[in-house]
Amino acid sequence: MQLVRLIYSSQLKPSTQPDELAHIHHEALSHNPKKGITGTLVFGDDQFIQYIEGGRSEVNDLYQMIGRDPRHEKISLIDFSEITEREFVDWHMKLVLLSEANPKVLRFSDNGLFEPSRMSAETALQFLRQFK
Ligand SMILES: Cc1cc2nc3c(=O)[nH]c(=O)nc-3n(C[C@H](O)[C@H](O)[C@H](O)COP(=O)(O)O)c2cc1C
Question: What's phi and psi for 67, nearest 5 deg?
Fold first, then answer.
């Protein structure tokens, strides 16, 4: 199976209640194991960055489904690459709330702010690997 990783950023729609996060996480945990998808979803300041890994067609299908989800907007692809092994082997979608994380995780940001839409692919990867 061809393994790939996909990283994107997006913004919570202003009309979406923050408690939707729990529903999104629940949906991910109910679908991802069947599809062999692992990864992490990081949320902070009404923004998301998500790392998805798995088979090429499963990752593509999931990204298209997520892209149609009306609960977020400004979806922007950061990275799509072939990989030889998984990074988030133990996580079918680890939810990380930045409000509960160590502030040191933002050390990759030059201004101390969480701005995933401005991250390069390399910075995004370094940032996300902190949550493995
Ligand atoms: C930021 C974000 C991340 C999401 N991540 C996943 C995911 O990893 N896996 C998944 O199945 N659905 C994910 N979803 C939800 C899907 O877009 C979709 O709404 C859901 O899977 C549909 O579930 P249902 O068929 O049970 O209603 C995400 C949605 C958002 C807004």
Answer: -65, -25
Number of domains present in the structure of the chain: 1
Look up the CATH number of the domain holding residue 77.
3.30.70.100
Owning domain of residue 8: 3-129
- Closest Cα to atom 21, ligand 1: which residue? 27
Does the pLDDT of residue 18 top 80, yes or no?
A: no
How many angstroms separate the alpha carbon of residue 110 from the centre of ligand 1?
31
Task: Over range 86-107, report the average pLDDT.
Answer: 95
**pLDDT of 122 higher than 90:** yes
Burial class (CB in 10 A: 0-12, 13-18, 19+), 1: exposed
8 lines ligand 1 (CB under 6 A): no
